[in-house]
Every structure is written in C-alpha cells, then in structure tokens.
From TrEMBL, chains A, B:
Similarity section: Belongs to the LDH2/MDH2 oxidoreductase family.
Organism: Drosophila guanche (Fruit fly)
Any one Pfam family match given in the protein's UniProt record, by short name: Ldh_2
Classification via InterPro entries: Mal/L-sulf/L-lact_DH-like_ah, Mal/L-sulf/L-lact_DH-like_NADP, Mal/L-sulfo/L-lacto_DH-like_sf, Malate/L-lactate_DH-like
Protein name, per record: Blast:Malate dehydrogenase
Molecular function as annotated in GO: oxidoreductase activity
Record keywords, A-Z: Oxidoreductase
Gene3D superfamilies to which the protein is assigned, alphabetical: 1.10.1530.10, Hypothetical oxidoreductase yiak, domain 2
Residues spanning the signal sequence: none
Amino acid sequence: MDFAPLLRVSTRNMASSAPKLVAVAESRRFMIDCFKAVKVPQAHAEAQADLLVAADHRGHFSHGMNRLEMYINDLAINCTDGGAVPKILKETPATAWVDGLNGLGAVVGNYCMDLAIKKAKTVGVGWVCAKGSNHYGMAGWYAIRAMEQGLVGMSMTNTSPLMAPTRAKEAALGTNPLSLGAPATNGDKFLLDMATTAVAVGKIEIQRRKGAGLPDGWAQDPNGNITNDAELGFSTGCLMPLGGSELTSGYKGFGLGAMVDILSGVMSGANYSTQVRKWTHAGADSAADLGQVFIAVDPNCFAPNFEERMTDFNARLRGVKPTDPSKPVLLPGDKESQNMASVDAAGGIQYLENQLNTCASLAEKLNIKPLAFN
Amino acid sequence: MDFAPLLRVSTRNMASSAPKLVAVAESRRFMIDCFKAVKVPQAHAEAQADLLVAADHRGHFSHGMNRLEMYINDLAINCTDGGAVPKILKETPATAWVDGLNGLGAVVGNYCMDLAIKKAKTVGVGWVCAKGSNHYGMAGWYAIRAMEQGLVGMSMTNTSPLMAPTRAKEAALGTNPLSLGAPATNGDKFLLDMATTAVAVGKIEIQRRKGAGLPDGWAQDPNGNITNDAELGFSTGCLMPLGGSELTSGYKGFGLGAMVDILSGVMSGANYSTQVRKWTHAGADSAADLGQVFIAVDPNCFAPNFEERMTDFNARLRGVKPTDPSKPVLLPGDKESQNMASVDAAGGIQYLENQLNTCASLAEKLNIKPLAFN
C-alpha cells in the first residue's frame, strides 16, 4: 500500500499555515485561570468563562475571548467587583428588582434569569430587572437558559452610546441588543439575538481593515450624514439604527433601541442613554451601572403543544422558496448551530492570530498556563 | 368699516377647493351607525369606532376609517361575529389564554389588555394571549390603554402574509407590528407602534399613484430581487423586512417579524405564518383566527419614580444635536401627538376625497345618516 498521498496531506496539515485549534474546554480553562488571577471566585470565573466560550463556539468572536482583556482590566482596577453576589431589592410573585452590586455580567445575568425562570414556573411569567450590572455578553445566552427549561426566554441590555437617533449627529443610545428564544421539538429552536443598530462596530472595523467601503445605512460622518468611508465611520462612532436612514425607516430601529433602554436601563434605575459610560480597551473610569431585563414565559399557560407548533412554524419559514436555490432561508440561530457543529467536528475553535497574541501576553502578565493547541 | 377683504377670504374658504373637515365625534358617530346597521351591539360598535377614529385623529389613515368597509364586509357575511364576547380558557395570577371567538378586534383587544392591566396591578405583570381574533387596528391603542393606568404596555399581532423572509421570494410573515408605551410626567410619553416590515403597503401604493419609484429595501419582484418599480412591488406583494436586504441586516427585521408571530400566533394557538388568510377589500372566505399578545407591566415593581426618569430619558433623546437644525429629533409618538393637536385646532379630520366617496356609498347601502362636515 502506498501511503505517500496521505502523508503529504498530513505534512501539509502540520505546516506553519495550518490552523491552530483551541479545544472548547481549553479555551474555558484559560479564561477561568485569567479571572481567578484577578481574584474572581471559582464559581464566578466559571460562569463568566462559560458565557464567553459559548460565543466563540457559536462564531460570535466579538462577544467571546475578544472581550476577556477588557473584563480583566475592569477587574484589575476594581471597576467591576468579581466577587459581588446580586441582591433582590423588591419582589412580587411575577417580578423582581435586583441590584447587581457591580458584579460580573454573567453572574448578574444568570442570577436574574434563574429567578425569572423560577417565577415563570410558578405564575407563568417572570420579569426581572437588574441595575448595577456590567457588560453581560451575548443577550441570547440568557434566552437559552430559559429555553433549556422548556420556557420562552427574552433578555435585553443597554450599552455604551454608539447609535445616533434618526435626524441626530451624536450617539445617544447603545447597540442595545434584544434576544428571544423559543424551544421546538428534538432540540430545534428559534433563537433571535440582535443589536438594534444596523450593524455592530466590529463589521465596520472589518471593512476598515480590508480597506473597503461601507454600504449606505451602516454609519454616519461627524455632520450626521451617511458615510461610505469605513475609516471615517469608525472614527466618528455613530452607528445608524436598524433600517438605516429615515427614508428606509431607520426611526424604527431607533425606536427599538430606545425600547430596549426603557425596559432595561430606565425601568431598573440604572444608567441609561447618554448617562452610560464609554467602554474602551483601556479600562473604565467608573462603574458601568448597566440595566438589564430578563423575561421567562411558560408557554404551557397558553395553547398546549407549543414546541410542536414551533417545529411547524420553523419548517414553514425554512421551507419558503429561496431567491437563490443554493441559499435556503436561515432562521435566527441556524448559523450559530452550524458553527457549533463545525467547531465540534474540527475539534476546536480557530482564533485569529492577534487574539492568540493577546492571550499569550495575558498569560505572561497574569502568570498563568498559556493557551494550549490541539 | 370695509368687510370686502374678510368676505373675499370667507368666499375662498367656501369654494369647492376648501377642505371638508369631519369632527372627531361625527366620524365616530358615523362608524358606530355603520356597525349597528350590520347588527353589532352598541358597546361593541363604540369600541371599534373609538379605535378607528383614534387612528385618523393621529394621522394614521391606513388604520382608521379606511378599514371600515372591510370590517363591514366581514360582518355582513358573518365572517366576523360582531356580538362575540371573548372567553378565558386558562388563567394564572400573571397570565391568561383567551379565545376571541371570532369577535371584533377592538372587543378582543380591549378585553385582553384590561385583563393584563388587572393582573399587572396585582402581581406586577399581566401577559395575555388571544386566539380567534380579528384585525385589531393600530397596535399602539392597547399600549395606550395600559399607559393610562400608569403602566408600561406592549402589544403585538400577526397579520396576513406580506413579508418575504431574507433570502426568500415568497411572503411567509405579515407586517406583524409591535407596540410599546411608557408614560412620562405631565402627559408626556414614549409610544412606539411599528410594523416589522421596512414600510407598510400603503407607502408603496402612494409611490405607485404618484408614478414614482421605490427606494432600495422596500419591496421585491417575483424573483426575490429588490425592485424600484412601485407597480411591480405592489403587484408582487412581497414587502422586505425592516433593514431591507441581507447586506443591510434585513434578517433582523425578519427575525423581529417572526418573534411577533411566535408571541402572538404560535403561543396562542391561532393561525400563524402562511396559515393566515389573505385579507382583501372583497371580504374574506374564512375566519381570520389571528393571534395577539397583550402585556402590562407595573414599573413600581422596580425602581421608584419611573415617570420622572422617562421624562429625563425623552429630554435626552429629543435634545441630541440634530443633523439639520430645522428638524429636531422626534420620539416615537411625537408626530401623532402633533397631528392630534392640528386636528383639534382645525376642528376636524380632513379625509381624502375617495374616502368620503366610500362613506357616502356606505351610508346609502346601510341606510344611515351620511357623514356631516364642519
């Protein structure tokens, strides 16, 4: 038998251009070690690492390890309290008002969603608002937590100002994401997790790095006009709301972003709109005091067989005639499920080189075991 | 004294080109009479007329008297049951599942929102899902009902298929609107009421009548491509989701439209997605069985002084530096408040000529007192 072709392939895979894959468990281990190095208790470090690695597993790198350095900075200067345990300030059978006490986003978020789930299982709905929170990662994480209990879950958070209201030339709302998860049968689901801006800053950064332009409706210049210049769009920091300009109904995206801030920031008594601090890689100068809302609803309080109908609903939408037969309709969450499957098949997550460099210097700075590759 | 100039003005006002204004009370009287003529009980006729005239008062003509003929057609052929009283099928302290029994949209909607309000006042949240409903007018109506009680109100409904999912060339969701109302101090408020498509069909009809084109992102042609041809966009009947094409994040608008259908149609056990019938001026061939959701939340369950913070939130957004100083930032609901003030100052609503013609023939057909002008 001739093994030459197989060996050649194998050699090629081991060349320096071969992807360096990081197992999901190893990425989690590394992040836990980082958090523990800045005195975060084990349980909190695990909660935060679970959240971040889940984003990388799904292909949402902007909300994964990419954020690690910022969290570590905030923790190192005591701007976030890694050991804080959230506290209930007010409660009814269906609601709770929680103070996150400046704890880690995942700690506050998991606490609040678990409380909402408990209430939903008792009276059908749980509606929990948190103030005193920090950046809580991907909004979909908390919807997934409710879905795992057979419930419909929703979550929203306000964020640092980046979106210019329709007709304005300054940012006054964040990318303010909202999520909704609804379980179907056999593990299928509907999982919406979206910013209320047209795009995230990350997409503008990518166009800028490529030296490419921006489509209409993504970003504004300092005078408040649409810009196609990625450099200018990035430096101005005024994203446009979902819908783009007023002509294409950008005021609806603006309205949605404001809705998210009302339900998360205003209702909880946290910072809102232009009160929210800027958040940069350099660490922050004050506590974020972000507001968040966590909603769980028990579909069994309404028509029976919700999950079966969700399966039919999903099938109807995925089965609509596509414009291009090679690109079938995708439901929110489908791309992420495909990405998880690819990572599992490949045996690990492929991080960008500059992310790996950041990890290497973090490991050195914090004196922890560097990230290992498969 | 010379009255000549005054007389000339007065003569000019009485000329055939002068606007024919209909007092709000008279518009309401006319609609009540129409509903009673097709055997709708007095209280239900009043509820439905209140809803429709409120839309005209706010300048949303598409959701006002414009719909009267369609409602009357549905009632005349017993496709809607004008006398039906909604029934609670299942209940917890925070939730209710309601069967609208094919009653009028306003009757079902008011019943459900009042139930949600009662629950919110007891346990902080009321979440009511209705099946067996009909077209329920402007979604904001029900949010206003909650706001009048000092609560935050939300409502959503599914509608007849008109939106093509991203990547599809067929419609599989309706314009599926959502509303959120939050009260501020001194009668100020935030009132979002938006379809999850980029625009409503009415806007395409207007461009078509003007012989004008469509901006990118409003509508598709039969092959699923963006069209700028208003005639083709109208005849195809495939609106694009908020956000337009995939490049400008139309999949988010698609996700929002699907979210509305899950919370209204799927959760309530009503028709959803492509199950929902087409609704035309000719009357329908079957019961609509639409699904709707009504949510009321008591902000006092969370941080105190919600209305004061809403006033500050509104001021921050209205006060952001405008791109064009002559066009300050408007909040959702501001245009509608301005329109109500204009109607009140003018002494009546100015309907389009073809709307008045429809009213005249309705009056004749139903043998009721024609619409009177101011």
